[in-house]
Amino acid sequence: MKKIDIAVFVLGILTFLAISLSLYMAFIYTPLEKTMGAVQKIFYFHLPLAWIGFLAFFIVFLGGVLYLITGSIKWDNLAYSSAEIGVIFSTLVLVTGSIWAKRAWNTWWTWDPRLTTMLILWMIYVGYLMMRNAIDNVERRAKISAVIGIAGFVDVPIVFMAIRWWRTMHPLLITSKGMGLAPSMLTTLFVSLASFTLLYLYLLLIRVRLGLAVNTAEEIKIRLSDKL
Amino acid sequence: MKSLWYLFSAYTIIWFLIWSYTMWIGRKQTHLFREIERLKTLLSKHDLSE
Amino acid sequence: MRYLKKVLAITVKDLLLEAHTKELTPAMLVFSLIVIVIFNFSFEPGMQNADIITPGILWIAFVFAGMLGFARSFAKEHEQESIRGLMLAPVDHSAIYLGKTLSNLVFLFCVEIISVLVFGIFFNINIFPIIPGLAVVLGLATPGFVAVGTLYAAMAANIRLREILLPVLLFPIIVPVLIAAVKITGSVFKGQPLSDVSGWLNLLVAYNGIFIVVGVLTFEYVIEE
């Protein structure tokens, strides 16, 4: 069996164990939060999803830069895989955030700087995926993806600052999710963060493996058509 | 507790989405694996006949 | 110095072409005016929130007009195959980027100036005392928008669905410019001094700097025949 398949297997088991542990800790180990009750427990997955979402987009940026420097399509494959996973994680952040907001503050959406920035980030990377579907030429697609990934990533801090500035001029009806964190909550958060990092790496690995297979299939097809 | 429904739906969505994605990748992988094998045999047949 | 000359040569070529054909700018202007007029229909006269909404209308009009202009400017090059000639010229491709950005900037400025005048008439805002403030916000916000828009238009130039993709790709990136421009314009309309919005002005300067650099560095990879 190839090395990558072994890595996938091991990582898969580790991820499964870690996620199970964080589920246990989130539901049973941590106490119920005073004001919000059970719905607060969304936090243990909502926050790691957001952080790992950002990590995923950083990898898109990195993959783009490395592709432009080296020209090796493997970096584009990495960037694309990470973008797909990043979009999934960001979608989950927005959806879980919305569910939490509805229960805790009786509104489906708030123009909170962090949530709004996440929405913009989501739009940038959905655009990235749409654009990839519109180009067939492998190299051109990789180059444009790299530039969009770089521009998008550079833009996000600016967007965050702009929105936060804007928001401080209009006092929020809903204050940010400040909560006192009991030690058990903090531990659970870290365990959850670690398990989502593992999940991200696992998904990234299997997605990259798929991408490599796609490229291999394309190559063989080209060689076949040359011979015919 | 009404809260539990929200909590439950949030978690369900998370795992549903992640699970579906993993399954999708798995299916494409097997499909591609078969495709690559098929193409490789085609290629080697051509090499032999030349 | 020679680099600058080449950049300007490209800009001047575009400007001359436009002066002869008058294809682009009238279309952009009409588009901008249509947006302004349509928004007018959504408001009652003398509405409470007019202050807050009117700067937004202006900038949405500019954004749409701008995107139209950027897309057309590259589409034209591809249609006429002049893009090949440009690329074969003995100059760093980033000069093409800067040249095109400058010409797009000139076109958009013209559209903006006329739109502002018309806007003042339609919404009964006295433009003349606030011209310096408006000049600053137009002068600071437009370059950043055009720099990013030109880069993205070059990317979208040869793709399927480019009419849909350019707005989809561009909008999230220009959110900071939009917010800052609308904030500053709103403040200018109220007659406040520019020092009140210095933070936003700084943000625009930073944005412009960052994205012009990004554009110059990455245009090379984006342009193709």
Q: What is the residue-averaged pLDDT of chain C?
A: 87
Biggest interface reads:
A-B, 35 and 29 residues
Silhouette of chain B: rod-shaped
Number of strands of chain B: 0
Order of helices and strands of chain B: H
For the termini of chain B, the CA-CA separation is 74 Å
Biggest sheet descriptor of chain B = none
Number of helices of chain C: 9
Description:
The complex is a heterotrimer of chains A (228), B (50) and C (225). By secondary structure, chain A is an all-alpha fold. Helix content of chain A is 82%, strand content 0%. In chain A, helix 2 (43-70) runs parallel beside helix 6 and helix 3 packs antiparallel against helix 4 (113-134). By secondary structure, chain B is mainly alpha-helical. Chain B contains one helix and no strands. Chain B starts with a helix and ends with a helix. Chain C has one domain (2-222). Chain C has helices at residues 2-21, 24-41, 50-79, 82-88, 93-122, 131-156, 162-173, 175-189, 198-222. Chain C starts with a helix and ends with a helix. Classes of the chains: A mainly alpha (228), B mainly alpha (50), C mainly alpha (225). At the A-B interface, helix 2, helix 3 and helix 6 of A face helix 1 of B.
Quickly describe the structure.
Chain B is mainly alpha-helical and 50 residues long. Chain B has one helix at residues 2-49. In chain C, helix 2 packs antiparallel against helix 3 (50-79), helix 2 crosses helix 5 and helix 3 (50-79) runs antiparallel to helix 5 (93-122).
